[in-house]
Write a structure and sequence with these properties.
single chain; Purple Acid Phosphatase, chain A, domain 2; nine-stranded mixed β-sheet; seven-stranded mixed β-sheet; 8 helices; 16 strands; 29% strand; globular
Length: 396
């Protein structure tokens, strides 16, 4: 089971918003996935928000009273299976049926929602977002209990009322990834003093502390790459703000290697910052991707482009000289809402490049309106992922 850093009581400085989850025990929360000591290269897949609106809950309800979300990911799951490690942000709580299953504005989803995410190939979840407290402290606590029961590592919230949660460290084939997660805030206002540690809200002191705590670990435990998950930004805006761009510059100076953002419900433009260092007497170029918003991975929202998301890809290589991000990519996704053969509504996440290939083989594979939209999405996201060095490639 995962375990976490202990930490002194948190001083809150509300700047933007962030969080980490877990059970406080002794050291850094560490999970190993096929760990190895050899030099290696891995692929990390990251998605935006797993949302669950009322229409999704209704669509998942079966005749026997069971909620089944597994069909949502049947089309995208083979792509996720190609990642060595995959995670996204759980933007709902799992407070149980007694607390009533609802969508916006206060989310609470069936436990099977998390199980379906796991079965789709996702290895971990961040839990810091503006809906983390939608069922108050009970919702935070029970959500973590459900994730723990499924052995899903998580970070971003904690059931501790005295200690702030700390980074998640994942060992993937010998490459250690450190993940921290924070949110800009909560829909129901600031946390009371009693629960102030339960959700990581963006705080420069807390973020710096988390990064430095990981950097100070013994070499055998120290993360090679630090990933920052931020739930932030203006909703429905296709560009990050100047203040967000400045904040990312600060993150990279502090020691983060990549920003992976969500919350605006749309995919925003990206940056891939490059820095040069001297490594063993030679110049070495490092890339630091800033993906400000990956949009909705799944939701009930239908207004363009809210039905569009992306799988962000990071290729990480570790040699005797150390680890670094050596490649970046993206896979456009589309949330398809359709009637199945039984006449029931279904939501499913489509791998857009794969769906377009299917249309080449069978022009009637999708309705005309969906076919048109898939082509639009490819063009829209090509623009959003355009950088001066054309470093982001489409992953099919």
């Amino acid at each position: 089971m995962p375990y976490f850093f202990r930490t002194a009581p948190l001083r809150l400085l509300f700047v933007l918003g962030i969080v980490l989850s877990g059970r406080s025990v002794l050291a850094a929360q560490t999970v190993s996935i096929n760990a190895t000591e050899a030099s290696v290269k891995i692929r990390v897949a990251v998605v935006g928000d797993f949302m669950c609106h009322d229409s999704q809950i209704s669509a998942a309800l079966q005749k026997d009273g069971v909620y089944d979300f597994s069909g949502c990911y049947a089309h995208i799951a083979p792509l996720i299976a190609g990642a060595d490690f995959a995670f996204g942000n759980l933007e709902t709580v799992l407070a149980g049926k007694a607390k009533e299953y609802t969508g916006y504005p206060a989310f609470n989803s069936p436990d099977s929602y998390a199980k379906a995410i796991q079965q789709a190939g996702f290895d971990a979840l961040t839990t810091a977002n503006n809906h983390s407290f939608d069922r108050q402290y009970f919702g935070v606590k029970r959500t973590l209990q459900v994730l723990d029961s499924l052995n899903i590592p998580h970070t971003g919230t904690t059931d501790s009322q005295s200690e702030r949660s700390k980074p998640l460290i994942i060992n993937v084939q010998g490459i250690k990834l450190g993940i921290i997660a924070f949110s800009y805030g909560l829909n129901n206002g600031a946390l009371s003093e009693q629960y102030r540690t339960t959700v990581n809200v963006i705080d420069t002191l807390a973020i710096r502390s988390d990064i430095r705590s990981m950097q100070a670990l013994p070499p055998a435990e120290r993360p090679d790459i630090i990933l920052v998950s931020l739930h932030w930004g203006a909703e429905y805006q296709l560009q990050p703000s100047p203040s967000q761009r400045r904040f990312v510059e600060w993150l990279f100076r502090e020691g983060a290697h990549a920003l992976l953002g969500a919350h605006p419900h749309v995919v925003q433009t990206v940056e891939n910052k490059r820095f040069v260092r001297v490594q063993q007497g030679r110049l070495d170029t490092l890339m630091y991707p800033a993906i400000y918003s990956m949009g909705n991975f799944i939701s009930g929202q239908r207004t363009k482009p809210r039905e569009t998301g992306v799988v962000a890809w990071l290729e990480v290589e570790k040699t005797a000289a150390g680890a670094k991000i050596v490649g970046v990519g993206y896979t456009p996704t589309y949330i398809d809402k359709r009637r199945n053969e039984a006449g029931r509504t279904e939501y499913r996440v489509l791998n857009v490049p794969k769906a377009l290939h299917e249309l080449e083989q069978d022009p009637k594979a999708y309705p005309a309106n969906v076919s048109k939209r898939l082509k639009e999405i490819m063009k829209e996201l090509e623009k959003q992922f355009s950088t001066p060095d054309n470093s982001f490639r489409v992953i099919e």
